[in-house]
Amino acid sequence: MQTKFRAISLSHKTAPVQIRELISLDEQSIQRILLRLKEFFSLSDALILSTCNRTEVYYSHDLDLSTEIIKLIGLERGLADVVNYLEYFEIFNEDRLAISHLFRVSMGLEAQVVGDIQISNQVKRAYQTAADLEMAGPFLHRLMHTIFFTNKRIVQETAFRDGAASLSYATIELIESLTSNTFQPRILLIGVGEIGEDVAKNMVYLPEAKVKITNRTQSKAEEIAGPLGFEVVPFENVQSAMDEADVIVCSIMKNEPFITKDLVKKFNIPSYKLFVDLSVPRSIETSIEDVPGVILYNVDNIRSKASEALEKRLEAIPQVESIIEESIEEFHNWKKEMMVSPTINKLKQSLEQIRQEELSRYLKNADEKEYVLIDKITKSMMQKILKVPVVQLRAACQRDQAEEMIEIITDLFDLEKVKSEK
């Protein structure tokens, strides 16, 4: 019986942002959990993906380890009552379902904004982390490279990635809508991590806006703001910059709120002030909405308006799903062949051992020319003998009868005995 590929998923489809931010993992936490999985359960294939919209663990094991893995996440996040959140996790214990889910997530079909290109890069980084920690075996390597190839096909063959319909662009559409009656709206972007950087680049679609950027590491803000023509505000001046801005977009990693109700109450708000919280965990207290004139949106309630790009993506979904199914079928064919590969190798070793023993037995006195000729003949005979069982094994894979054929060939050639004698 082959080890099953499984998945655990907590996402925007199963949990609100206040639950997702409790479970969200940073890079160091991901590495620690992967190492524990390796130590406690001897996992050789495991991948952890944690974004603002999802925290997921993919792994290969004979047993369902979902509860144990969720407890490990709780331990890492300091959640003694993590079992109370089990209902928010979706568990995929069927091999094909887990693989299909990873494909759909990687392509952006499960994203909050369909086709979000960011998820593809996030999956690549998750895979790199697993590989760096030697948590990616032949199975996961092959699966991930199949996913990357599928993504390339989707970009080349469909309109699914055309236009800009990412979460970041959805933020731009929201700002454009809410500031439509404001002349040259003043926008402050706090934090230029992955999402913040993407938001900054999409700010070019707001040509009338006056954009300022601030970041804890000023050089990073300058690197991004420079080519875009935006002003950089030193991080120590962030509060005065917030006071002046009409729109504040916050995308920073912080365990406690960075923008509080008490802080916002100090601001001069003659008309309105829009706050957009793209952080998970959230960096803006929800109670700021109690302050007159304040409007707050977070990653859950940002909704992209109907756009031509999004419509094209939605129309392309059937084509994308068809390409994914082709890739999954191809991958499963490879997986089936991997199942019979050890038996084929053992059969080859068994026959080669017999061949070598017989050569040693009968060619003790043969000269070099005779030995080379007979060695060549016996190798050719062995290849022809191997051909039929190998073809039958591969055919059995396609019929989903590989296990039965493995058992027959193992018994017929006494391969278990050969293994035990080695």
UniProtKB/TrEMBL annotation:
It comes from the Bacteria. Residues 8-158 form the Glutamyl-tRNA reductase N-terminal domain. Its EC number is 1.2.1.70. Residues 319-415 form the Tetrapyrrole biosynthesis glutamyl-tRNA reductase dimerisation domain. Pathway: Porphyrin-containing compound metabolism; protoporphyrin-IX biosynthesis; 5-aminolevulinate from L-glutamyl-tRNA(Glu): step 1/2. Substrate binds at T51, C52, N53, R54, D116, I117, Q118, Q122. The record marks H101 as: Important for activity. It catalyses: (S)-4-amino-5-oxopentanoate + tRNA(Glu) + NADP(+) = L-glutamyl-tRNA(Glu) + NADPH + H(+). The active site is at C52 (nucleophile). It is an enzyme of class 1 (oxidoreductase). NADP(+) binds at G191, V192, G193, E194, I195, G196. Catalyzes the NADPH-dependent reduction of glutamyl-tRNA(Glu) to glutamate 1-semialdehyde (GSA). Possesses an unusual extended V-shaped dimeric structure with each monomer consisting of three distinct domains arranged along a curved 'spinal' alpha-helix. The N-terminal catalytic domain specifically recognizes the glutamate moiety of the substrate. The second domain is the NADPH-binding domain, and the third C-terminal domain is responsible for dimerization. PANTHER family: GLUTAMYL-TRNA REDUCTASE (PTHR43013). Belongs to the glutamyl-tRNA reductase family. This is Glutamyl-tRNA reductase. It comes from Algoriphagus aquatilis. The gene is hemA.
